[in-house]
Write a structure and sequence with these properties.
Cytidine Deaminase, domain 2; globular; binds tetrahydrodeoxyuridine; single chain; five-stranded mixed beta sheet
């Protein structure tokens, strides 16, 4: 199955309303693509804030957790959409967590702004050079 970026972005846009972000009001939704038995699958997540701010879970890590439950061992693409005017890119902690599952340093990391007129494409190799991995 090929991945239709437009339908992913459309679903991410719908998911923004599920973000639990009463403190920052920054809504983020993320999707990860992965393959299982030759089939491409997608898992989604949103940011989940907490009154104890440091316990907040970013959308990217939320999507990765959902994919893990489905049997994901490796992700081939990451998509991030937010309610912000500018496209936001994964935070430092998420970059390290993505490193755990994104073996290809050139795999796409796509960041899209709310009005979907800004699309910034990067990769974990660029976002976290000289990253810690074993
Ligand atoms: N956030 C994410 O979900 N992903 C990122 O990559 C950056 C930040 C969330 C965390 C917090 O709920 C809100 O955005 C503001 O920092």
């Amino acid at each position: 199955m090929s991945i239709n970026e437009q339908s992913i972005v459309c679903h991410l846009s719908d998911l923004l309303s599920k973000s639990h972000s009463p403190y920052s009001k920054v809504q983020v939704a993320a999707a990860v693509a992965y393959q299982i038995d030759g089939e491409t699958r997608l898992a989604y997540g949103v940011n989940v804030e907490n009154v104890s701010y440091g316990l907040t879970v970013c959308a990217e890590r939320s999507a990765i957790s959902a994919a893990i439950v489905d049997g994901m061992t490796s992700i081939s693409a990451l998509y991030v959409l937010s309610n912000q005017a500018q496209a936001i890119s994964p935070c430092g902690a998420c970059r390290q967590v993505v490193t755990e599952f994104m073996q290809d340093p050139a795999a796409p990391v796509l960041c899209i702004n709310h009005s979907q007129d800004q699309r910034w494409e990067s990769s974990i190799g660029k976002l976290l050079p000289n990253r810690f991995d074993l």
